[in-house]
Amino acid sequence: VDAGMWVMQRWKKSGSLQQLSMRDSPDIRQTFMYKLSLNSNLHLFKNVLLTGSSQDKYVPIHSARIELCKAAVKDNSITGAAYKEMVDNILGKVVESDVELVLYDVHHALPNNTNSLIGRAAHIAVLDSELFIEKFLVIAVLKYFQ
User: Among 13, 37, 116, 119, which has the minimal tally of Cβ within 10 Å of its Cβ?
Assistant: First the structure.
C-alpha cells in the first residue's frame, strides 16, 4: 500500500493523497488531517457506529475504528504523540457525552487470490456486496435508526 501510494502521488500529483498520508506539511500538527481532528463533531450525533475489518490492508482496523494500535501506544515520537492527540480529539468528546459508540469488526469470507493477499478484497467487499450491506443494516445497525 505504501509503495502504491508513493507511485500514485508521483504520477497523479494528488493533493488529497498527500493529505490522507499526512505528508502535506513537515509539521504533523499542521497537516490537514490533524487540523480536521481538532474540529470533530461526532459528539453531536446520537449514535456513532464505526466499522473496520482486520482483513483490510488499505485502511487498518484501528484507523477505521479510530483506535490506538499497539505500536501507537508505545510510540513516544512526535508522530506517535500527534496520533494519540488525534484519536483523543476525535473521540474524547464522544466518550464524555451521551453518544452511543459502537465498534464493529467485520470478517469477510474472501477467496484466496491476489486481491485478498494484498488486502484490497476486504477493503472493497462492502461495496461489492449488496447482500452484506442489507444483512448488516438489518441485523446490527437498524436498531440505531428507530
Answer: 13
Q: Rounded CA gap, 16 and 5, in Å?
A: 11
Q: Write the DSSP string, 44-70.
A: GSSEEEEEE-TT-SSS-HHHHTT---H
Residue at 63: amino acid letter:
S
**Residue 2: pLDDT above 80?**
no
Is residue 136 a contact partner of residue 145, using CB atoms and an 8 Å limit? Answer: no
Cβ-contact 56, 123 below 8 angstroms? yes
Q: Indicate whether 23 pLDDT > 80.
A: yes
Grid coordinates in use for 127? 461495496
